[in-house]
Design brief:
Elements: H1 6-34, H2 43-78, E1 82-84, H3 92-114, H4 118-125, H5 127-149, E2 153-155
Antiparallel strand pairs: 1-2
Length: 171
């Protein structure tokens, strides 16, 4: 690749992929593997399991959200370096911005599902619904991101045409 920012772009891509894998993969695991098993446990075991998972998973949620926010905002800013192919063209930044806005409730719900506050406890009381909502939003984001990844792009010209000015002869 002949882009001088290739190492930075690669690092941002890895940050984004790893953050998404962690956040979405953990949510899928909790929704379809952990949550269905919990009702079969006695109350004490259920509380211990919940606290053990919550305290460990909360750290991953924070790290994954940070990776996704940092890389997502950086990628959105770096998109200004490109001309995007039709039919997306100038809509690329708007679509990527919608993707960024969709990320915020995902981070919020994941935080509430691992939190200790009174609001978090309310979310956790309806855990299955919020895990389903989070997964739905996450799938939508993956679909949008997959689409944007295949939009043709060319680096904008590094050399600007010189500004033409009228020469004034002051003799």
């Amino acid at each position: 690749m002949n882009d001088s920012l290739f190492p930075v772009l690669l690092l941002l891509r890895y940050m984004h992929i790893l953050g998404a894998i962690a956040l979405m993969g953990g949510t899928i695991f909790m929704r379809f593997a952990l949550v269905p098993v919990v009702p079969g446990l006695d109350e004490k075991s259920r509380a211990e399991l919940h606290e053990g998972v919550r305290s460990r998973w909360a750290k991953f949620v924070m790290i994954a959200a940070a990776l996704l926010l940092i890389s997502g905002i950086a990628n959105l800013g770096l998109a200004a370096r490109y001309d995007f192919a039709p039919p997306v063209g100038k809509l690329y930044n708007m679509i990527a911005g919608v993707k960024l806005i969709l990320a915020l409730p995902i981070f919020l719900f994941a935080s509430f599902l691992t939190g200790r506050s009174a609001t978090a406890k309310k979310f956790q009381a309806n855990r299955v619904m919020w895990l389903n909502v989070n997964l739905g939003l996450a799938v939508l984001m993956v679909l949008i991101g997959g689409f944007l990844r295949f939009v043709g792009r060319d680096l904008k010209s590094e050399t600007k045409e010189p500004v033409k000015t009228a020469l004034v002869d002051n003799r």
